[in-house]
Amino acid sequence: MARVFVITGPSGVGKGTLIRGLIERIDGLQLSVSATTRAPRPGESDGVDYHFLTREEFDRRVAAGDFVEHADYAGRSYGTLRSELEDRVAAGVPVVLEIEVQGARQVRAAMPEAVQVFIAPPSLEALRTRLIGRGTDDAGEVERRLKVAEQELTAQPEFGHVVINDRLDDALDALTAIVAGELG
Ligand code: ADP
Ligand code: 5GP
């Protein structure tokens, strides 16, 4: 039975917001905490939002084979550590991953049984508004993320499930139905 859920889609589309809601609604669902070389944003803490690693530590752990998947995004590295998944998968605990598209492809190859959901914005303009409204990225970073987003949106047909995050409540209902349906 599927126990690993990959949530992907462009930055700012609402993946984090939806996953917070999903974890409240699905009993026992746990978040895989990713590793990254980007700096913590105000309010983020190590081991909770991310495992914040130096470039050297990240590369060392890639070489050691510690990652299920890893990818470069907007000039930084991000990846899912095996240690976030292995024990939970072995124990039958459902896990949710919030990752970008290249990483989702790697998980698809390594774990074809994982359920993958692409979260799409109603429009690129809405995505821009959300990235600016979130207030975590300067104008240059917002533009870099929007450029990546245009590419990422072309990957939609690869995904078994696509949820358009227009009204948040509707999107959360749709995502919850997918996950609950898989968990049975
Ligand atoms: P991601 O994790 O995909 O980068 P976030 O969850 O951080 O995206 O959401 C980006 C911004 O958009 C946040 O400020 C969030 O509150 C807002 N947001 C999320 N979903 C919606 C929605 N359906 N309508 C409007 N704003 C939204
Ligand atoms: P942010 O800097 O906004 O936290 O994340 C930037 C992008 O990296 C987002 O699209 C996010 O989903 C993605 N990301 C976060 N963690 C991982 C991970 O472990 N692996 C991959 N491949 N992407 C990730």
Oligomer: single chain
Runs with pLDDT <50, length 5+? none
* Percentage of residues in strands: 15-25%
Shape: globular
Average pLDDT number? 96
Put simply, the count of helices is 7
Helix content: 40-55%
How would a textbook summarize the main sheet? 5 strands, parallel
Helix/strand order, N-terminal first: EHEEEHEEHEHEHHEH
Write the layout of secondary structure elements.
Layout: E1 4-8, H1 15-25, E2 30-31, E3 35-36, E4 51-52, H2 55-63, E5 67-73, E6 76-81, H3 82-91, E7 95-98, H4 101-110, E8 115-120, H5 124-134, H6 139-153, E9 161-164, H7 168-183
Parallel strand pairs: 1-7, 1-8, 2-7, 3-4, 8-9
Antiparallel strand pairs: 3-6, 5-6
This protein binds adenosine-5'-diphosphate and guanosine-5'-monophosphate.
Adenosine-5'-diphosphate (ADP) binds next to helix 1, helix 5 and helix 7.
Tell me what you see in this structure.
This protein is α/β, with parallel strands linked by helices. Helix content is 45%, strand content 21%. The strands form two sheets. The chain has a five-stranded parallel beta sheet, sandwiched between helices. Strands 4-3-6-5 form a four-stranded mixed beta sheet. β5 (67-73) and β6 form a beta hairpin. α1 crosses α7 (168-183) and α5 runs antiparallel to α6. The longest helix has 16 residues, at 168-183. The radius of gyration is 16 Å and the shape is globular. 30% of the residues are buried. The model has no long low-confidence stretch (mean pLDDT 96). Bound molecules: adenosine-5'-diphosphate and guanosine-5'-monophosphate (5GP).
In short:
With 184 residues, this protein is of the alpha/beta class. It has 7 helices and 9 strands.
